[in-house]
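hey
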């Protein structure tokens, strides 16, 4: 690691510590999905930590994906409320940068980097989750623009986002993967309805988004019309290759490590050592993915590998905490019992969101030859 990255790491760590000490957030498990605070995102923006890898001409920081990894790792360690900007920073901004026209980049990237525009991810539908090529939301040409009609489901934070990324069908083709197109949609546009779905924790982050003939200007198409499938599969390396697939339960791991006093059962110490050793390996894989992204590659299979191993790890943190401490999970409590409850309730989603384990394992098996290098 260069000195530059060490300095960046310390800056992010100091800021998270200050906000926490001032009582502006409490570390929680799964904060990258559940910790939504636009003021915290604005603070990140003021430091240039949203869009840190994007060119300066588009409001970015012009730094590497390794720098982004350092920022995200420190925020995840802190259990900080980053959900407002996470999706746009991780995936929509990079997709616009990679495939969007210069006009689309100029229109959106500086505003994302300033946390003035926030995005949700409109991929899944009731009949199209793992099988994304089955999307039924359509976009039809209408004069100089498009009209979108359909419904998306499980859309995290649609009710708090200004815009949505929407994958829609714009035509047929020989293969069912043909004819898909990616759009930016203004959630304040006429014809958009956002309905809440309450999750297992009793929280509202999921939504259903309904589009009834929603107008979208042509300049808001991301990339090529009909080429959405190729683009979306490349995007998956951004979606799956980060440390949020490893560190959703990190605040619990930290509380667990602190709870093991001198003289603790050797088996408990060993179990925590085992988790720490695995975390070191997973960080290494995330580091390699970031380096691949810096080299312009789309390491889709390596990202699938990280997501599968990482989400298994996240779940085992909760299992180990429960076994080793014997603590009773308490969603309304404090400290380890509260973190344990959060980890247990969030865990079922770890291996579903962003691609289920079965789908990832298929992808990994097919690409095994590429991984061994
Ligand atoms: C916490 C959370 C947040 C989410 N946020 C968003 C969001 O913001 N935006 C968004 O668009 N979506 C979001 N999702 C939805 C998520 O992407 C989908 O749930 C996921 O892709 C799985 O799709 P599905 O639920 O339709 O399940 P299905 O695809 O119906 O799968 C059901 C079961 O069948 C298995 N299966 C399916 N196909 C295969 C196959 N080919 N081979 C073997 N097994 C298979 C799956 O592994 C799974 O066990 C979120 C989900 C969760 C849990």
């Amino acid at each position: 690691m260069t000195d530059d990255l060490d300095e960046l790491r310390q800056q992010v760590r100091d800021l998270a510590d200050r906000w926490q000490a001032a009582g502006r957030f409490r570390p929680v498990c799964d904060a990258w999905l559940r910790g939504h605070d636009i003021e915290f995102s604005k603070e990140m923006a003021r430091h240039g930590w949203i869009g840190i890898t994007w060119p300066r001409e588009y409001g970015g920081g012009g730094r590497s994906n390794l720098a982004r990894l350092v920022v995200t790792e420190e925020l995840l360690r802190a259990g900080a409320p980053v959900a407002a900007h996470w999706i746009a920073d991780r995936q929509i901004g990079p997709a616009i940068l990679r495939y969007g026209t210069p006009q689309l980049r100029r229109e959106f990237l500086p505003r994302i980097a300033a946390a003035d525009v926030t995005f949700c991810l409109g991929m899944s539908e009731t009949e199209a989750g793992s099988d994304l090529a089955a999307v039924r939301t359509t976009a039809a040409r209408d004069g100089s623009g498009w009209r979108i009609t359909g419904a998306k489901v499980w859309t995290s934070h649609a009710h708090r986002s200004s815009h949505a990324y929407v994958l829609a069908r714009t035509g047929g083709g020989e293969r069912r993967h043909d004819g898909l197109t990616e759009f930016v949609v203004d959630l304040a546009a006429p014809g958009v309805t956002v309905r809440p779905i309450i999750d297992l924790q009793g929280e509202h982050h999921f939504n259903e988004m309904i589009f009834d003939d929603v107008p979208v200007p042509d300049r808001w198409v991301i990339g090529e019309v009909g080429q959405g499938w190729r683009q979306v599969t490349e995007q998956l390396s951004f979606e799956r290759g980060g440390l949020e697939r490893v560190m959703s339960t990190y605040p619990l791991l930290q509380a667990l490590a602190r709870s093991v006093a001198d003289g603790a059962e050797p088996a408990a110490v060993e179990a925590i050592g085992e988790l720490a050793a695995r975390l070191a390996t997973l960080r290494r894989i995330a580091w390699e993915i970031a380096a691949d992204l810096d080299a312009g590659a789309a390491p889709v299979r390596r990202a699938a590998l990280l997501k599968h191993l990482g989400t298994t790890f996240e779940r085992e943190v909760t299992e180990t905490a429960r076994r080793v401490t014997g603590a009773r999970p308490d969603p309304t409590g404090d400290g380890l019992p509260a973190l344990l409850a959060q980890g247990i309730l969030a865990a079922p989603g770890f291996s579903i969101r962003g691609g289920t384990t079965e789908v990832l394992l298929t992808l990994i098996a097919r690409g095994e030859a590429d991984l061994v290098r």
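The chain has a mean pLDDT of 94. Residues 120-124, 129-130, 154-156, 349, 352-353, 356, 358-359, 362 surround flavin-adenine dinucleotide (CB under 6 Å).
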